[in-house]
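task queued by scheduler; priority normal; single chain, no ligands, no partner chains; default sampling; output format set to structure tokens
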Amino acid sequence: MARTAVPVRGGPAVSVRPTPTRTSRRRHRAPLRPLLLLAPALAVMGILLLYPLVRVVLLSFQDYTLANVVSGASDYTGLRNYTLLLRDPYLWTVVLPNTVVFAILAVGGTVVLGTLVALLLQSLRPLSRTIVIGCVLVAWAMPAVTGTYVWIWIFDVDRGIVFQLLHGTGLLGAEGHNWFTDRVSFYAIVVLNVVHHGFPFVAVTVLAGLLTVPGELHEAARLDGATAWQRFRHITFPAIRPVFAVVTILSTIWDFKVFAQVYLMPGGAGSNAQVLNLGVWSYIRSFAQQSYGTGAAIAVLLTALLLAITLVYLRVLFGSEELR
């Protein structure tokens, strides 16, 4: 608080610091109140999120096995786990292509289908829209485990719906076909499963953005002869671009770390080494092979890959100037 000069009779002016009032003290304490209110939530997040993350990073620098779990001792090996992983051809020829290609197809399919459903919902009357949204959300509310077993039943070798349709039309013999042994057909089923489970979230989120776009803009563009695609490209997409950023980033994070939809499929638990992704490979190395350090290193690599992809996507979508 600034001092003020007070003239004194018979002498020079004396600098006196004014006594702080109750209002000024409240103003000084005001910036601390949000931090005090957020402190309990930040403490819980630090315990539940930050500590496990730090623990996984520390494990990735150790040769940590079941013996270390029993003894409690730590055997730090530096970057040895990362060096072995990056030199493993299995990572570059099987696991990483499975993870990246699957995520690209799943994210693209989820966003495109969700956007199309959102545009359909926008054109419906309020009552019809509510009914359709309720039906669509059933797929999103279904647990991933339940949805995976439904798709396993659909493509069952002997009794699946796909087998009955193809056998009834003469395209498939009585011996059937195992769709889960081939790498391409395996992930085609996983993509269908993930897109079916994820598109309702995209549809509802994009619909909320579509309802905020003024109808006068579309009406003016329609009078100027703009097609539906042109109106979507030049009016709708720029107006709700942040919404597409959110759903794309969230879908990317979810699809890169897909676990249940791969692990529960026939062969996905490790019996078919050609269909593993980073999430399942980390689990198998950690718990099936009891190499927790290697499994943690795989998890850290997956996290770093997700962060890099998210940053690149944000820069491409918004531009480097808007992210500063």
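post-processing summary
- The chain is about 70% helix and 0% strand.
- The chain has one domain: 80-318.
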